[in-house]
Amino acid sequence: MHSPEQDEDEFHSSLRLYLSSLEMLAAMAEAQCDLMGNYNVAWELKDDVSAGQFLVGRGYLSAEQEAWVQALSHALGALNTQVLPAGASKESNLAAMNHPGWEPMRYLAKEVIRQLAPLEPINAKYLGLATKASGKS
After folding, report:
1. How far is CA 136 from CA 15, 16, 49, 127, in A?
2. Which of 93, 109, 96, 94 lies closest to 27 in space, CA to CA?
3. How far, in Å, are 3, 67, 92, 131 from residue 53 at the CA level?
4. Which of 19, 25, 26, 40 is in the most buried spot, having the most CB atoms within 10 Å?
5. DSSP line for 83-137
6. Among 80, 65, 85, which residue's Cα sits nearest to residue 18?
7. Of 44, 118, 56, residue with least CA distance to 84
8. How many angstroms separate the CA atoms of 26 and 45, rounded?
9. What is the spatial distance between Cα 101 and Cα 78, in angstroms, rounded to a whole number?
């Protein structure tokens, strides 16, 4: 069993990773591939963002924020990445990420980012990082 401090540490670390994954998902295909190193981008990005479901039910997100996180996780679960090109080349990853199924995911990612925006400065402060708005820690 985690102490409240350990749980809060784990939440904030997980939230930071989730916010970074959302930023990648919200980007256009070429940027996604570059950010993810052109290696199995579709699968890695789907897994990284789907992990946001583990932020739900921990008491840190509002019900509305949790609903958006779950909506994106469910939508990603329905995206069949098995039919997409795979590999470590830029071409195969771009082809996969330009699949029309990713457009709604990008839209949802942007909305989840917007919904979680009030948590970003709290998260950055907790972790001792610069916030987007200030660029300062």
Report:
1. 19, 16, 26, 12
2. 109
3. 21, 10, 28, 24
4. 25
5. GS--SSSHHHHHHHHTSTTHHHHHHHHHHHHHHHTTHHHHHHHHHT---TTTS--
6. 65
7. 44
8. 11
9. 10
Contacts of 71 (CB under 8 A, 6+ apart): 108
Taking the model in full, what pTM does it have?
A: 0.90
pLDDT in tens, 97-124: 999 999 999 999 999 999 999 999 999 9
Contact present, 42 and 93 (Cβ < 8 Å)? yes
Q: Which two tokens stand for residue 49?
A: 């963002």
Structure token digits, residue 53: 């479901």
